[in-house]
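[Automated response] Your request has been received and processed.

Submitted sequence:
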Amino acid sequence: MKWIIITSPEFLSGEATFIDKLFSSGLDLLHIRKPNASIEAYIQLISQIPSKWHSHIVIHEHFELAEEYNLYGIHLNRRCSKIPATFPGRISCSCHSLEEIVKEKETKDYVFLSPIFDSISKVGYHAAFSPILLKQAALENIIDEKVIALGGITACNIPLAREWHFGGVAILGDLWRRMSDPQVEQYLKQLHCLLHHV
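Generated structure:
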């Protein structure tokens, strides 16, 4: 299963150093999502992350930086939904229904489906799909290796995401609230083992 982390919407002290630690712990992809950030702020964060990880970074805004910094790709959402005319890289997008997945999967490298579980970072943002519906979607190959589970992902529910045939998980709230936790190294090892069957 693919292990993806989405950044906190706000810039955090020590964020680039922590991102380096995430990649060293086996992280597959980092999605930088800072909805209100300027291009200068994006450049500053990307420049602080060791360049060896740049090819594992996806950006949600300021798509022109993808080629400039040799990033993994761009992520389309409601705010930034246009693919740059000459963009040659990988493209992902956000989906909030099974119908959207069917439509978008054909032309995207992978897609997010959310919310799968009750959100940790967004209060009142509850799971939108029943376990029965997700099982059926897996049986019909709607959910497959190109579909990433997002929303309320924790170490405890990763096995369920695997059972529903998701190709990976995107973690946000559960990770960033642990950034200063002395036990964070153990948590990262646990995630790596769960996702990569080590």
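Summary generated for your ticket: The mean pLDDT is 92. The chain has one domain: 2-196.
If you did not submit this request, please reply to this message.
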